[in-house]
Amino acid sequence: MRESIVRFGPNGQLIGVLTQPPLDRPMRDVAILLSNTGTNSRVGPFRLNVELARAFAKLGYATLRFDRSGLGDSARRDAQGDDHAHALLDSTDGFRARHALRVLDVERVKRKFRRQQHRARHAEFFAEPAVDASTIFTRAIPTLDRFREDLAAMAERGARVLLVYTGGMGLHINAPEQVSEMLGDEAWVAAAVSVAWMPDADHLFMQPSRRDALANSVLAWLDRITTR
User: Fold this and answer.
1) What are the tens digits of pLDDT across the range 173-198?
2) Residue 84 · residue 142 · CB < 8 Å
C-alpha cells in the first residue's frame, strides 16, 4: 500500500491523501472518493475513512480521501452557493484530479503546520474578519420527490448507488423494505439502488467490528457492479 499527501482544485486549495494498492497489486479502473463526515477531518470518525481506504487498497482500489473546502486542511472556497454547492464543486475537482494530483513535499507540510501552530498560539496577531457561519455549513434537506428525481437521473446516466442505513437512523427508517416502499417499484430502482442494512451499527461506526462490516459491504457491492 502506498500513501501520498496531495493537493488539487483551484490553486491547489484542496488537501487529501491518496491511498494506492501496492506495486505488485493490479490497479482497478475504479477510484474511490472519501470526504468529510460533518465537520470531521478527512480521517473520518474513529479513523473510519483511513481504515476504508486501506481496505480498498488491498483489493486494488485507489482512494482519495480529502478535506472539503473550509474543513480540515483545505482552504475555504471563494465561490457562490451554499455548502451543498461547494461540496459538489469539491467532489467534481476530486474526480478530475485522479490523473493530475500534485504530491506534496512532506517536510514543507511540516513547516506549514509549525507556522499554523504559531498562529494559533498568537491568534490575536493574526485575527481575520469574522465570517457569518450561516453562510458556510448550510444544507437544505431535499424533498422525497427531489430525492427520487435525483436517483432516477443518476440511474439514467448508468450510476449505481449503495444506501447505507444504521441503527442510528431508527427514528427515520427501521426496516430495509422502507427504501423500496419510498422509491417505488420502477425498474430503475432495482437496477441501480442497493441497500446495506446495519441496524447494530451507530451512525459513526464506533465499534471496530462494525467498521469492518461496512468495508466488507462496500467491497461486496463494488464487486457486483464492476469487473476485475
Assistant:
1) 788 888 888 898 889 999 999 999 99
2) no
Other Cβ atoms within 10 Å of 199 Cβ, number: 14
Query: Among candidates 49, 61, 60, 58, which has minimal Cα distance to 17?
Result: 49
Residue that has been written with the C-alpha cell 448508468 in this structure: 158
3-state secondary structure at position 8:
strand
Sheet holding 102-103, edge to edge: 31-34, 62-66, 14-20, 2-8, 102-103
Q: Per-residue DSSP letters for 49-116?
A: HHHHHHHHHHTT-EEEEEPPTTSTTSPPP--SS-HHHHHHHHHHHHHHGGG--EE--HHHHHHHHHHH
pLDDT above 60 (res 62): yes
pTM of the model: 0.78
* 3-class DSSP state of 37: coil
Q: 96 falls in which pLDDT band (50, 70, 90)? A: confident
Cell numbers 483551484: residue: 10
Interior/surface letters 67-103, b for 16+ CB within 10 angstroms, e for the rest: bbbbbbbbbebeeeeebeebbebbeebbeebeeebee
To the nearest 5 percent, what fractions of the chain are helix, strand and coil? 45, 15, 40
